Amino acid sequence: MKSATIAIVLVALGIARAGFTAEANSPVKIDTAKIIDLTYSFDARTIYWPTEKGFVHQFEKNGDTPEHYFYASANYAAPEHGGTHTDAPRHFNRRGVTLDQVPLTDCIGPAAVIDFSARAARDPDAMLSVDDIEAYEAANGRIPDGAIVVARSGWGKYWPDKKRYMGTDKPGDVAGLRFPGYSAAAVDFILKNRQVVAIAIDTASMDPGNSKDFPVHRIWLGANKPGFENLANAEKLPARGATIFCIPMKIGSGTGGPTRIFAMMP
Q1: Nearest to 187, CA basis, from 178, 200, 174
Q2: pTM above 0.70, yes or no
Q3: What are phi and psi of 188, to 5 degrees?
């Protein structure tokens, strides 16, 4: 599986050669029109859990030096879980791997994009179901081995309106959270019946906002697999054919962290 994933990456980037080697004097050519950025910027508008502080970015230097050249440098601080980010297994698994230990082979793969946005538009508590998975496969074929399943709720249309996106904009108000997620049954089905390396969603959590005991997190992260939350521009992804790259900040002992996610279109 790892060899297949590496091959996918090389082909997606347009640098595959016979034997997976590149010609030393051949420039890498990437069709930028085929790249979709699936990451929200980290700034003062970045959405975090109601119990968390927001993203802080402060310039320490930003101007001309005494030697008459420009120099800029800043400090930042942020919770691990917020904005476009990775949930490492350790987040809900005492013996799970930490963010720096998540293998890149679990962060790259063909995207299987399962859309349940029509139902989510009618019900903010909607969950991606086993029926949704079966309908997807009936239309698109079996989810490929090594895939990253993306649950597309359509919730990105509300970013960065925190009240619409989260259901509440009050600090500490976890009781008011309302947004779609995966069902525990769907994640259990994927885990037991498909060779999927990760799951992702375009909302603030793999579990729906009204969840009290986070079964999806406990099942998926409990299996030592990563999850990705707050994907941007999910509506631009095709149901199948894209290759998705979810590259987290390599935080030692991290339970999660900011992640640059993008996709290469077929």
Answers
A1: 200
A2: yes
A3: -65, -40
